[in-house]
TrEMBL record:
Cofactor requirement: FAD
Protein name: Acyl-CoA dehydrogenase
Keywords assigned by UniProt, alphabetized: FAD, Flavoprotein, Oxidoreductase
Residue ranges of domain Acyl-CoA dehydrogenase/oxidase N-terminal in the record: 7-119
PROSITE patterns in UniProt: ACYL_COA_DH_2
Source organism: Streptomyces hydrogenans
Entry annotated with the keyword Flavoprotein: yes
Domain named Acyl-CoA dehydrogenase/oxidase C-terminal: residues: 235-383
Domain of life from the UniProt record: Bacteria
Pfam families for this protein: Acyl-CoA_dh_1, Acyl-CoA_dh_M, Acyl-CoA_dh_N
Domain (Acyl-CoA oxidase/dehydrogenase middle): residue spans on this chain: 123-223
Family classification: Belongs to the acyl-CoA dehydrogenase family.
Length: 385
């Protein structure tokens, strides 16, 4: 079945990215893996490639497009090579939509040129120790100063992807207490400069997977945030957070599908090269049947991911559809990658093989962006249940 989601421009971009990965990432990826993060200067290279500016208006140095299809190509190519681009996905997929949606003209002039070049890397700080998916339970506060020139930020965040290298972080904080009838009331968003006094990075967290993506704990002690760095209106932060969930969940769904597709490729190569009992592993019927079943699942996930991509680009992807795509694609990836690792035997458990890293990287897909259980709740609600 011929895919129709990509055109010649996307395929030309694919060739560029594939060559870039082979030249700039694959030779040094083991070093990144051991260090637990990509080097900071790598993001300047992504900026030079134009990756950060695809969806940024031309007046701020971007390409001025309105599409997620180039991001989709990135997911496929990084997975195909068994690599990650550090924390850059958060920069584009999570932070940029908030800047475009909420920033004033003055803020866009200050933020976006440096965003496009990679001079300022962005992250998003929602989760707090002990709150998990309960965003409304956050305790971080931002109180307006008496002279009205700045907010004073106090609190802590955890699981912040890109948090080590970030130059600005969109921090969710309480500017007022929740009301009796609405726990979500009183949350605001701030574009916080990480060089601010009182801002500190705690532990760089040691994760099971996504080893080259820096993830950190953040702490704020009387951090002064200029009122000019409030994003959107005070107190409306929770409603803003909901606007970006569909695209975030599509990104996780598409990334999971791409990982599953890559797993089949890795396993197919391995079983043709590996010999057991005098024959290639690919010769055995079980191998053929397992890979065939995995390919069928990947085909289905690709169709779901592509359909969600088209709906997202048309600004028609509903929360329930995004939840369904995320649930399906992440569950497929879990099954497929596990079976492909099994076909590698003991070598599949070794980090020198991409399937092992893929197995660890994939596990978080059913947790972040909303757990599979949350996705089921959203789908069930849309069904009237």
């Amino acid at each position: 079945m011929r895919r129709t989601v990509f055109n010649e421009d996307h395929e030309a971009f694919r060739e560029t990215i594939r060559a870039f990965i082979e030249a700039e990432v694959v030779p040094v990826y083991d070093e990144w893996f051991a260090a637990g993060q990509a080097p900071r200067d790598f993001y300047y290279k992504l900026g030079e490639l134009g990756i950060f500016g695809i969806n940024v208006p031309e007046e701020f140095g971007g390409a001025g497009l309105d599409t997620h299809k180039f991001e989709a190509v990135l997911y496929e190519e990084t997975s195909r090579a068994g690599v990650q681009f550090g924390g850059s996905g958060v920069h584009v997929l999570l932070a940029l939509p908030y800047i475009k949606m909420l920033a004033t003209d003055d803020q866009k002039k200050r933020y976006l040129p440096k965003f496009v070049s990679g001079e300022e890397m962005w992250a998003l700080a929602m989760t707090e120790p002990g709150t998990g998916s309960d965003v409304a339970g956050m305790k971080t506060t931002a109180k307006l100063s008496e002279d009205g020139t700045h907010y004073v930020l106090n609190g802590a965040k955890t699981f912040i992807t890109g948090g080590v290298h970030a130059d600005r972080v969109i921090v969710c904080a309480r500017t007022s207490a929740p009301s009796e009838d609405d726990r979500r009331f009183g949350i605001s968003l701030f574009a916080v400069d990480t060089k601010s006094e009182g801002y500190s990075i705690g532990r760089k967290l040691d994760k099971l997977g996504l080893k080259t993506s820096d993830t950190a704990e953040l702490a704020f002690v009387d951090v002064k945030v200029p009122v000019e760095d409030l994003l959107g209106e005070e107190g409306k932060g929770f409603s803003y957070l909901g606007h970006n969930l569909a695209s975030e969940r599509w990104g996780i769904a598409f990334g999971a599908y791409a990982q599953a597709k890559a797993a089949v490729r890795f396993a197919q190569q391995y079983v043709q090269e590996r010999t057991v009992f005098g024959k290639p592993v690919a010769h055995f019927q079980n191998t053929k049947f397992e890979l065939a079943a995995c390919q069928a699942e990947v085909d289905a996930a690709e169709a779901v991911a592509d359909r969600a991509l088209e709906a997202l680009d048309a600004h028609e992807l509903t929360p329930a559809e995004a939840a369904s795509a995320k649930l399906f694609c992440t569950e497929v990836a879990h099954r497929v990658i596990d079976r492909c690792l099994q076909l590698h035997g003991g070598y599949g458990y070794m980090n020198e093989y991409p399937i092992a890293r893929l197995y660890a990287d994939n596990r978080v897909n059913r947790i972040y962006g909303g757990t599979s259980e949350i996705m089921k709740s959203i789908i069930a609600k849309s069904m009237g249940l």
